[in-house]
Amino acid sequence: MDETSTSAADGPDAATSPFRARLAFDLDVDICVVGAGLAGLTVAREAARLGASVAVLEGRQVGWNASGHHLGTVMPGFGLPVADLIERVGLEGARELWALSKQGAEYVRATATEELIPGIGMSEGVLEVSNVDAGETLIRRLHTLAGDFATEVEGWQVDRVRSALRTGRYFHGIHYPKAFQLDGRKYVHGLAALATRMGARIFEETPVVNIDFSGIRKRIVTPSARLRATHIVLAGNIHLGAPLKRLSDTLLPVWRYAALTEPLGAALADVIAFRGSVTDSDGIDHFRIVDGDRLLWASPETTWDARPKRFGAAVQRRIATVFPQLGKVPIAEIFGGALGVTVHGMPQIGQLRKGLWVASGFGRQGLNTSAMAGQLIARSILWGDDRWRLFSPFELVWAGGTTGRIAGHFIGLWARGASSAAGALARYREGVRAKERVREARLAAANLKAGTRGPPRRRPPPGAVRPAPPAPVREAAEPRPASSQESEHISGGPM
Fold it and tell me: What residue intervals traverse the membrane (predicted)?
C-alpha cells in the first residue's frame, strides 16, 4: 500500500501508473493474460523473460482492485490452515505445497528491491497474535511449522507480546522473522514496469467481450480489436466478466476495507513497539506502522461492494477497542478491494483445458501465492514444469452465487462474534486468575508476619459447632503440718 498516494476511489497514483493505451489493433501472441493484477503481471514478466510474446488485457487499470490496495504483508502459507492442508493432501503433499508458497515469498523479496522498484519500503517481521490463551495450540503449531515445514518461527509468551503491543487483548504469538512487508501499490506497478521491460505488452481499458477456446490458436474479442494466442491465462479474479461467469462464480467475493491514519506522533510508539505487520489468529485485524507514526489498519469485511468511506468509523472503533490509549484516531484515507475466496481456501492454479489456464482465488495470502502461481504457469507453458498439478485436489467448486454471499456474510458475522466472545472469556479468566494470585500472595504475607508471633490461630469455618470448654479440675490440697496436740491425739499420747 502506498501510504502517500491518493485514495482508492481516485485511482492509482499517477507517479507509478504511466498511461497505457487500450488495444486498438489486431494482434497475435504466444500468451494472452487476462487481468493485470499480481498474478497476471507475474505470468507476463516470467513468460516474457523466458522468450514468449505476451499481451496483457486489463479491463480497467493496472492494480486497480485488491492487487493494488492491501497492507503488503508477505509470508508463507495459504488461506487454508496448515492442519487442514495436511488432512486434505497428507503430510508430504502439504510439505510440497508449503515449499512452493515459500518460493513465492522469496520471489517477491528478490523482486521488491530498491534497485528494481525504488521506494518499495520493505521491512522485516510478521507477528501472528492469539485472541485467546492457547499455549498448547501454539506449541503444536510451532512444532509443525519448524519441524515439518522447515519454516523459521519463534514462539512469544504473553509477556513478550504485551511488551510489544500494549493491550490486554492478545496472549501468545508466533513471530515470523523472515516474513516481511512492502508498499503494495508500488510493488504492483513496479511489477508491470518490469514485465514491460522484458517485452510484455500491457493494454488498459481493454475488457474481454468474448473468447473462442477451440483450436490451437484461441481467439479473444475486445471492443476495439481481436487477439489470437496459443495460451490464455485467466487472472482476472472475480472480474472476468460475462464470457467467464461460470469461472467467476467459483469465487466468493469478499471486500476488505482498510484505513490509514494521520500522523499520531509519539503516542503510537508508546502503544506499539513492534515495527512489522501484526495479524490476529482469527483473521479479524491486520495492522502495521508506516511512515514512522501512522497506523495502517484493515478490519471490516463484507461480501457486498460498498463505498470505502462508509467504513472509516468502523476502523476507528476497532483501533480504539484494541488500543484504548489511542482514542479516536484521525483517518487520512480509506480504501478497499475485492478478494476472491474459494470454498476450500486454496488458490485456483492450473490448466482447465489445453491452452487455457487459470490463476486466481488467492484470498488473503495474495502476494506470495500469486507470485508462486505466475512462476508455475509460465514455466509449465514454456518448460513443461507440471508442479501445478499439486493443486489438482482443490477443484473448482461453485461458491453458491447470491445465496453463498448471504451465507458468507452471516458466517463472517458469526465468526467475528464467536471470536469476540472467546476473547472476552479468555480475558475474564485471566482476570480471575490474577485476583486469585493477589489473594494468595496477601495470605502468604499475613502468614509470614504471624509466624514471628507463633503459629496463627485457625478460625473455625462458619456454622461449625464449637466444642464445650473442659470442666475445671480441682487440685488436691497440700497437707498442712499438724499441731502438737493433734499429733498427740493421733498417735494416742506420749510414749
Answer: none
Mean pLDDT calculated for residue range 359-367: 90
CA distance 413 to 405: 12
The gap from C-alpha 20 to its chain's centroid, in whole angstroms, comes to: 34
Single-letter code of the amino acid located at 380: S
Cell of 212: 473462442
Strands 286-290 and 348-353: unpaired
Report which secondary-structure segment, H or E, holds 338.
Answer: strand 331-341
The phi-psi region of residue 261 (left if phi > 0; otherwise alpha if psi is between -120 and 50; otherwise beta) is beta
Considering the four listed CATH numbers 1.20.1250.20, 3.90.1180.10, 3.40.50.2300, 3.50.50.60, the one that applies to the domain covering 8-120+182-251+343-399 is 3.50.50.60
Q: pLDDT by residue (tens digit) across 259-307?
A: 999 999 999 999 999 999 999 987 789 999 999 999 999 987 888 888 8
pLDDT the model gives residue 185: 93
Cα–Cα distances in angstroms (integers) from residue 303 to residues 252, 289, 300, 336, 408, in the given order: 8, 27, 11, 12, 7
- Residue 430 above 90 pLDDT? no
Amino acid (one-letter) located at 4: T
User: Which residue, 129, 55, 131, 107, is CA-closest to 430?
Assistant: 131
